Amino acid sequence: MNIKRPTLIVAAVVLLVVVAAGFFMMRKKADQPAAPGTASSASTKHGAPPARPTLTVTVAKPESAELTDTLAANGNVMPWQEASVGSESNALRLAEVRVNVGDTVKRGQVLATFEPETINADVAQAKASLAEARATAADAAGTADRARTLEKTGALSQQQINQYTTAAQTAKARVEAAEAVLAAQQVRGRNTQVLAPDDGVISSRTATVGSVVAAGTELFKLIRQGRLEWRAEVTSAELGRVPVGTPASVTSASGAQVQGKVRAVSPMVDPQTRAAIVYVDMPNLQQNSAIKAGMFARGDFQLGRSNALTVPQASIVPRDGFNFLLLLQPDNRVSQLKIDTGRRVGERVEITTKLPADAQVVVQGAGFLNDGDLVRVVDAGGAK
After folding, report:
1. What would the pLDDT profile of 141-193 be if each residue is shown by its tens digit?
2. What is the average pLDDT value for the chain, to the nearest integer?
3. What's the mean pLDDT in 258-271?
4. Range with the poorest average pLDDT among 18-27, 30-39, 329-338, 341-350
5. Quick count: other Cβ atoms within 10 Å of Cβ 41?
6. Contacts of 139 (CB under 8 A, 6+ apart)
7. Half-sphere exposure at residue 97, Cβ-oriented, CA atoms within 13 angstroms
8. Half-sphere exposure of 265 (CA within 13 A, CB side)
9. pLDDT band at 44, cuts 50/70/90?
């Protein structure tokens, strides 16, 4: 096909115009400024785009407070002293038991009695033997006196006189022996009554009416004076902080609380546990019905008072087995600080780690933040 030369020239010119127009449009679009409010505009005018706060939080300054210094311990509640009350008579039948477990008794009070018939018969026999011995002794003494009056007359030999004197002395010794037997039988008669050796509370009873018991058999156990004590286990490292007289607050498993005072500190430390027993006197048993001997109890020794730096409990964030505070920085970002805690009073916790002098800790929202997060701070009543 033949194409005329003028036509080719026209087509070439048109192509050049189209190419030039396209190049011009692309150059104009590249050089055109971005629209206001777009990311490119913000980037051109201010650099990086402004960051948005991660969370709205409240902050507080650490406060100094005077706290009670305590030492926690565990131990058992036990009787101060326990008396064993037993039978002093042998092979007698128990006739009456007058007390039971939990009864409060006074010193010398009759707790139980044995049948007295056998003892009464033995006492009567001892009295008769004593009367006979006294009569024999009186006759022997009279004979000896008469023999001594005839000594100068020679009517009796010296040997006979000595025999009468010896017989009188022997009869006198038999009287003393009979008196001792009677006294022993009278003691047995008194032992037919089992008496309380001290004021206190009956903690155990094995006495049974009608039983025949041997001498020395335990019939009752008595908590002397109704006194209990808390035997707290304190480590050897802390033992020096608990002198005699230190007040203590004891809490039973039921939640009942009583106040006591350190009576004594054991002179020995257990070589296995490296702990010593601290004996804490507790009030009268009858005044503490919720505290019983044999209970396990925890308690705190009141060692005094000291100043401490405290923060709200809500500001402490536990993570990975440690405690942290989130401190507010001047640029409204937070920095995470690992801390050690101490005593707790109400909603405040002692911080033993040193904090900056102007520290502000995040309270509300602390658990949702990470190190370096940007926050917006408001007060407790609303936005600032």
Report:
1. 888 888 888 777 777 778 888 888 898 899 999 999 999 999 988 888 888 89
2. 84
3. 93
4. 30-39
5. 13
6. 171
7. 20
8. 15
9. very low
Q: What percent of the chain has pLDDT over 70?
A: 84
Q: Delineate the domains of the chain, giving CATH numbers in brackets.
A: 55-70+307-383 (2.40.420.20), 73-80+228-295 (2.40.30.170), 82-205 (1.10.287.470)
Query: In this structure, what token pair is assigned to residue 175?
Result: 């009287």
Distance in angstroms (rounded) separating the CA atoms of residues 77 and 282: 9
Q: Which two tokens stand for residue 180?
A: 């001792």
Average pLDDT over residues 337-343: 90
